Amino acid sequence: MKGLEAMGEAAIRAGCRYFFGYPITPQSELPEYMARRLPEVGGVFLQAESEVAAINMVYGAAGAGGRVMTSSSSPGISLKQEGISYIAGAELPCVIVNMMRGGPGLGGIHPSQADYFQATRGGGHGDYRLIVLAPASVQELADSMVDAFELAERYRIPVMVVGDGLLGQMMEPVVLPPERPVEPPHRPWATTGARGRPPNVINSFCLDPAELEAHNLRLQQKHRAIEQAEQRAVVEDPDGRSRLFLVAYGTAARIARAAMRTARRAGIPVGLVRPVTLWPFPRSTFDGLMDRALGFLTVELSLGQMVEDVRLAVEGRRPVLFYGRTGGMLPEPEEIAVRLESMWQQLAAPTATASQTRG
């Protein structure tokens, strides 16, 4: 199944019944799929007149208690940022898919990870965060949609799923989540009509400074709870003896895995750390590797964005190097393996010398 179609079907099976969007490559197959399937399950698909209109439709549907999503690509996500800020401030659950382009500006449609900062730093205005998921296969694209809706509702927060043109367009076997009955969610805060109860008010507009500060502090408290509970990463360490670790997500992780195998055939003990949540960033995973890791090599399809979070997680305890390509160019596994060999020679030799001296 094609990646974008798998995402659409998984979203419907996860209970999504409202989709508002605007076409932009390389994600247009997702709204196309939703336009065909949502009417079949009693849902609503609407192609808005712009990205700004689409995200504000998401705002309205989420406020009314609907299970809603939108999707776009980098410049389109930029246009949605004002609405995303409002939705985050109003603490509404929704899912946003970003199949990234290679920017800045209009950019290109080839694989890229140039929106890491935009996704993980909130992107819009104000002190807020999004939960950000980074699948690396068609199966994970489908699985991430179920996770995204559940996380969005659990924390009343927008969840962004990031991918790129390669993941969205590729075809792989996939096991879709089982269909489940869609029942009206219990959302006592939603604007479903005030018959028999006081009216609900949903907004993020607080003119009183003390009230706004209290609201922001409550958001921060929620963010800290998410950081504690939802850090996710996969560590691939085939023999449990890795001393160097590649760090990569999404498409870059697939390439890094091939580089890991190439380096291992050359006798270099390399593993792979694959963050699954980009926010919260899986800092605890790096703490668990400090007893044996000599260093980390971060591989990205950008000029270096996630590497900042890796360095924050490592806290200077080990070297963190970077290798990236941009503009839609993909690194070859052999390029990365050469960097690993150089890194191994620099970091392993002093260790061996010290060991010989102690002996």
Instruction: Count the DSSP helices.
Output: 12
Structural class: alpha/beta
Strand order of the largest sheet: 2-1-3-4-6-5-10
**Alpha carbon gap, first and last residue:** 57 Å
Strand content: 15-25%
Mean pLDDT: 94
What is the overall shape?
globular
Question: Helix proportion of residues, in percent?
Answer: 40-55%
Low-confidence stretches: 353-359
Please give the number of β-strands. 12
Radius of gyration over all CA atoms, rounded: 22 Å
Largest sheet features: 7 strands, mixed
SSE ordering: HEHEHEHEHEHEHHEEHEEHEHEH
Structural write-up:
This protein is of the alpha/beta class. It contains 12 helices and 12 strands. The strands form 2 sheets. Strands 2-1-3-4-6-5-10 form a 7-stranded mixed β-sheet, sandwiched between helices. Helix 1 (3-13) packs parallel to helix 2 (29-37), helix 1 (3-13) packs parallel to helix 6 (138-155) and helix 3 (51-63) packs parallel to helix 4 (74-89). The chain is globular. The N and C termini lie far apart (57 Å). The model is unreliable at 353-359 (pLDDT under 50).
What would the keywords be for this entry?
single chain, 43% helix, five-stranded mixed β-sheet, 359 residues, seven-stranded mixed β-sheet, globular, 12 helices, 12 strands, alpha/beta
